[in-house]
Structures are given as structure tokens and as C-alpha cells.
Amino acid sequence: MDPGDVLSSTTATVSLLATAILAYRHTRLQARLTAIEQTRQRQQLEASRHADVKAMVAGTPTALQLVLANDGPATAREVWASELPVGSDDPPLFHGLDELEQAPATLRPGDRLPFPVLTLAETAERVQVVVSWKDEAGPTASHSRCSCRSHTSYLSAKCR
Questions:
Q1: What is the mean pLDDT of each run of 10 residues along the chain (160 residues)?
Q2: How far apart are CA 42 and CA 37, in angstroms?
Q3: Which CATH code for domain 53-159?
Q4: Domain extents for the chain?
């Protein structure tokens, strides 16, 4: 064997080893990417089974409303809500909210369900709204603290 043949054989062997190592690494990387994609798909499927119903206060100072909003990808069934005062004063009155206990609502994704708010002088400025519903994943509840404040010619409202 002359030196050219030895050099060619060595180069071929090194190329074969490098190809085998790269193929092994590529296979491992592909398996990791496949596992990540499967996990993402499972999470996406799981998330699509959940509704996301929240209470918020919206509107103008003269027409304030408590709004139940479904911002999730699934339909919320048997939606009902109740209000709890934060402090010693009575909570604001939400017209029609009590009727949800007798006839719970259904909120599709993107649906909004408004309830007019009546605030009186001795009404609590803050209220906690508990919203419960069922979706494809089962029963769920969320708690929102809302603020309905009357100032001299200005009424502000917010939930968090």
C-alpha cells in the first residue's frame, strides 16, 4: 500500500466516523424535538378544554355594569356568580345576578354577559365576585375583586 492509499483510507474512515456521530446526534435532537412538539400539542389540547370566565366592571359613570366574560377557548356551562362585600358595607346591587342561581347561563368563547350595577351611598366600594362554571375539563371557579367608587361627578370601576 502506498502512502496515497493510506491517506485515502484514513480520510474515508474519519469521514465515516464523523457521519455516524452526526447521524447519532441528529437522531437524538429529532427525538427531543418530537417530544417537545408532542408536549406542546398535549398542552394545547388541554388548554382548549378550559373556559376562562372572569368578572369585570365596565361601562360609563352613568351606566356601570358587572360583566362576566369568557376569554377562554372552551364553552362555559352552568355559569353563576355571587358577590361578597369586602368590608362591613353592603355590596353593590347587580341587577339580574341572583337569577343565575335559578337558571345558570352558558357562555361561548368571547361571550359577555352584562348586569347593571346600582350603587347606593352606603354601598361597599369594593366587592369580591365569585364566578363558577363547568367546562370540558370539569367544574371551575374564579374570584375577582372589583371596585365601584363614587366620587363627586366621577365614577370609577375596575376589577383585578
A1: 85 92 94 90 76 84 82 91 73 74 87 81 70 88 69 38
A2: 9
A3: 2.60.40
A4: 1-47, 53-159
